Amino acid sequence: MRFAPIPQSLPPTVPFTGPETLERRRGTPFIARLGANENGFGPSPLAIEAMASAASEAWKYGDPDNHELRQALSAHHGVPPESIVIGEGIDGLLGLLVRLMIAPGDAVVTSDGAYPTFNYHVAGFGGALTKVPYREDREDPDALLNAAAETGARLIYLANPDNPMGSWHPAEVIEDMIERLPGDALLVLDEAYAELAPAGTLGKIRADDPRVIHMRTFSKGYGLAGARIGYAIGHPTLIAGFERIRNHFGVNRIAQAGALAALADRKWLSHVQAQVAGARDRISRIAAENGLSALPSATNFVAIDCGGDGDFARKVLAGLDRAGIFARMPGVAPMDRCIRISCGPEAEMNAFSEALPVALAEANG
Amino acid sequence: MRFAPIPQSLPPTVPFTGPETLERRRGTPFIARLGANENGFGPSPLAIEAMASAASEAWKYGDPDNHELRQALSAHHGVPPESIVIGEGIDGLLGLLVRLMIAPGDAVVTSDGAYPTFNYHVAGFGGALTKVPYREDREDPDALLNAAAETGARLIYLANPDNPMGSWHPAEVIEDMIERLPGDALLVLDEAYAELAPAGTLGKIRADDPRVIHMRTFSKGYGLAGARIGYAIGHPTLIAGFERIRNHFGVNRIAQAGALAALADRKWLSHVQAQVAGARDRISRIAAENGLSALPSATNFVAIDCGGDGDFARKVLAGLDRAGIFARMPGVAPMDRCIRISCGPEAEMNAFSEALPVALAEANG
């Protein structure tokens, strides 16, 4: 069977193995699901109610214009609806953006160890990806800009706050970076963790700046990962480009209803923010109780430095897995000295607290 | 702003305008939603219950392997799970298939007047589309095969039953067509209306035949259009190709739960089949009462021959719109002598029955 040349050249690799698959391999469910930075505090009860109510309307296609949600986001962010496109999560929007901007051989720059799904999409459309190292556990704006200038990159990916390290740059660093973008490079600013970041991390949303596109999601702070709904904000001409290629009826009706209700429930978001902050502290304390240090985090997860190399951290992760804790870790040195633990409710944090010393003891020999 | 060459060349056209957009333009909601072949009899109550229950689990990503649903579909169709890929409706799967198989300039064949979203995807990946005419209101296998042989087509699209005419070919015609496929052409067999077709329309599912891929959906018979979930069945090597390019976490968790429950509820599907059959008869009677003839249909919609040309049918459609009936019509002559009315519950059928004579009188004078 002969695929088209680009797909034919792609490895049958998948960016992530889901926890359900891991559970089937293990033969038992995880007791704590802390590996995908899901929001275990859950979506707003009003969003759950809206989705449950929308379920009986599931015979209707969702509004392909996502009109109500775009209007609500427009009001929320103070940007015109023409600057907003809704998609099947940031994953789906990243795929569309790469398709829209990258012809085979076009240069793209990211950080080595940053979001694999972006790299997957770049490879999937034949882009030429350059990766620059992290610097002190953060994505390195200067290195990204230099690589972009050298390669003539059309896209530069940066997540702020960062995944998998939880690190962040203050808004001024990003704004300075935008001013220094070379050529017609577009900054893909992945702000998946925006709602969980400390004040001063997010700059002004640039809805009329052709040099940057903001990627946002309902998966993290709003707790709707399974609903698959996110959005991008950018210059209206760029946003209009998505209309040429997107699957217009692709965003499901129930997700639209859930996102709309979640966005409106600011009180629940505050509650989640407080819970996440508490869980971040708890994870840091658990690390310290085990002689490890947790990295500061602007997200709903914490990277814990296991104090050894990647092999050691992988052993710790394997021990956690045996104890029923689903977690993941950075894929690239030196960040792979860490394991990455998502914030979750108390029971999950307790389970992690019990499992970590055992996993460490096993990893130590 | 410079897009990649293929998107840059695309018109900012959208295959379909959604009814919500039309309602915003009209300023009032439709009283009957009969334009998108949605299933107004609704999904199984068990599917609604499953989705409502899954809503509170929406903080978890859906299983990217769609394991449970694939297992259930495997058992239902008697094909191996390796022959099944789940996607965001047939629309999403058609996009992935075109991307997987078609390089810029590659030939693709379809029927003039068949599903516009397929054409949208072919254009979106730079394919060279050849359209052949319908023959007696049906897609024409011989014309498709001849055009495919002449152009060296890699894909041939055929919907059985057909949309927008509701016509169909018996299974033997399709099986004969598969035997006569030229070169390495792949038959894209869109069976969106499979569950509503009369016995003898669907052939054996070919899960190990590299010459055909079956496209199925939960949008029509199962009433889950808004959940955005469909599947393709084909040769395991072809199906594995989707893993190289699909958005692995793209199918939402609530839809997976809904589809699983819908598939299991055979009693509800029988109920819907009976309701649809009744509504088909009702639409035909309404046509006859107005001196028009309805075409036979193997789907959940009926094409009504308005007895004039396309301009006349467009006038009738505009009259229905004024009366609050959302309907659509074929885009190409001579099929555009018809309007296309989806089957729906009694209240919607009554509304159509009241509106049609008025719309006809207006169109006539």
TrEMBL record, chains A, B:
Key word Ion transport present: no
Pathway per the UniProt entry: Amino-acid biosynthesis
Superkingdom to which the source organism belongs: Bacteria
Cofactor(s), by name: pyridoxal 5'-phosphate
GO molecular function, one term: pyridoxal phosphate binding
Residue numbers spanned by region Disordered: 1-20
Annotated keywords: Aminotransferase, Pyridoxal phosphate, Transferase
Span of domain Aminotransferase class I/classII large: 33-355
InterPro entries per the UniProt record, alphabetical: Aminotrans_II_pyridoxalP_BS (IPR001917), Aminotransferase_I/II_large (IPR004839), HistidinolP_aminotransfase (IPR050106), PyrdxlP-dep_Trfase (IPR015424), PyrdxlP-dep_Trfase_major (IPR015421), PyrdxlP-dep_Trfase_small (IPR015422)
Similarity section: Belongs to the class-II pyridoxal-phosphate-dependent aminotransferase family. Histidinol-phosphate aminotransferase subfamily.
PANTHER family the record matches: HISTIDINOL-PHOSPHATE AMINOTRANSFERASE, HISTIDINOL-PHOSPHATE AMINOTRANSFERASE 2
The protein's name: Pyridoxal phosphate-dependent aminotransferase
Species this protein is from: Paracoccus aurantiacus
Lineage: Bacteria, Pseudomonadati, Pseudomonadota, Alphaproteobacteria, Rhodobacterales
